[in-house]
């Protein structure tokens, strides 16, 4: 598969520059609601239009699935794109938002990139070849004790008005861990598991475009990826990513 990694990174970083041009002028940003608790901005749309156009030109053999524009033809082999994961954070001027791009071939994610322009952190992974942050290979933490662990989560389930809203699960885990974080971007949460900034992440009711790239990056850095019952694989409706060493301890609280 002829993906030129340097050209691919250049494309993702240019998408980041487009997002930053809006981020630096938030007072002019047009924000709409797709649902009562789900936002979209003109920046999301501009980034996705750019990525769709460039990726189609560079790799016409692949289809495209973007959060904002939906699915093209050829969904067997496709790019999976979240133009801005963490739109609400973006619109508020916070740093934790990212562009997420993954390549899926025959049902398997083989390339993943997550770029956080406000932090200038670029994460990349290729199946069976490892994960990198800003050109340096990364790996998950070595923490073995849940009581010493820092964990992160999100609440897409609350945004969707679900009765299983993660609050009881969060309270159980918060009582047994040292640090808890809610960054607002599942793509970045998974990357922070990958480079050991947090020891585990879980969330539910996500979409594949939220986690496809980040999950590959975490897995290639040594993370264990399962659902809340411990089944290995990529389950957007229930994702648990750990450093592996605290997996059983955390799974018992799911």
Keywords for this entry:
D-Maltodextrin-Binding Protein, domain 2, 2 domains, five-stranded mixed β-sheet, 8 helices
What's the average pLDDT? 94
Structural class: alpha+beta
Q: What is the CATH first-level class name of the largest domain?
A: Alpha Beta
Low-confidence parts lasting 5 or more residues at pLDDT below 50? none
> How many runs of DSSP E, i.e. beta strands?
15
**What is the N-to-C succession of helices and strands?**
HEEHEEEHEEEEEEHHEHEHEEH
CATH topology of the largest domain: Fructose-1,6-Bisphosphatase, Chain A, domain 1
- Count the helices. How many? 8
- Could you say which overall geometry the principal axes of the C-alpha atoms support? globular
> What is the strand arrangement across the widest sheet?
4-3-5-6-7-8-9-10
CATH homologous superfamily caption of the largest domain: Fructose-1,6-Bisphosphatase, subunit A, domain 1
What report would you give on this structure?
The protein is an alpha+beta fold and 254 residues long. It has 2 domains: 5-137, Fructose-1,6-Bisphosphatase, subunit A, domain 1 (Fructose-1,6-Bisphosphatase, Chain A, domain 1), CATH 3.30.540; 146-251, D-Maltodextrin-Binding Protein, domain 2 (3-Layer(aba) Sandwich), CATH 3.40.190.80. It is built from 8 helices and 15 strands. The protein has an 8-stranded mixed β-sheet, with helices on both faces. The radius of gyration is 17 Å and the shape is globular.
């Amino acid at each position: 598969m002829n993906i030129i990694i340097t050209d691919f990174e250049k494309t993702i970083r240019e998408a980041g520059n487009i997002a930053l041009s809006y981020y630096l002028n938030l007072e002019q940003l047009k924000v709409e609601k797709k649902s009562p608790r789900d936002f979209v901005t003109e920046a999301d749309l501009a980034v996705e239009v750019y990525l769709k156009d460039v990726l189609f030109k560079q790799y016409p053999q692949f289809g495209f699935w973007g959060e904002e524009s939906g699915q093209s033809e050829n969904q067997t082999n496709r790019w999976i794109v979240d133009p801005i994961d963490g739109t609400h954070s973006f619109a508020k001027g916070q740093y934790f938002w990212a562009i997420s791009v993954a390549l899926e071939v025959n049902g398997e994610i083989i390339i993943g990139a997550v770029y956080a322009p406000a932090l200038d952190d670029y994460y990349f992974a290729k199946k069976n070849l490892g994960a990198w942050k800003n050109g340096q290979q990364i790996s998950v933490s070595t923490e073995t004790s849940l009581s010493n662990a820092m964990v992160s989560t999100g609440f897409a389930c609350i945004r969707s008005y679900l009765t299983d809203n993660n609050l009881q699960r969060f309270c159980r885990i918060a009582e047994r861990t040292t640090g808890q974080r809610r960054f607002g971007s599942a793509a970045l949460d998974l990357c922070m598991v990958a480079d050991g900034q947090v020891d585990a992440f879980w969330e539910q009711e996500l979409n594949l475009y939220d986690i496809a790239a980040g999950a590959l990056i975490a897995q290639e850095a040594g993370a264990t990826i399962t659902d809340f019952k411990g089944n290995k694989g990529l389950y957007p409706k229930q994702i648990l990513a750990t450093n592996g060493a605290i997996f059983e301890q955390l799974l018992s609280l799911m």
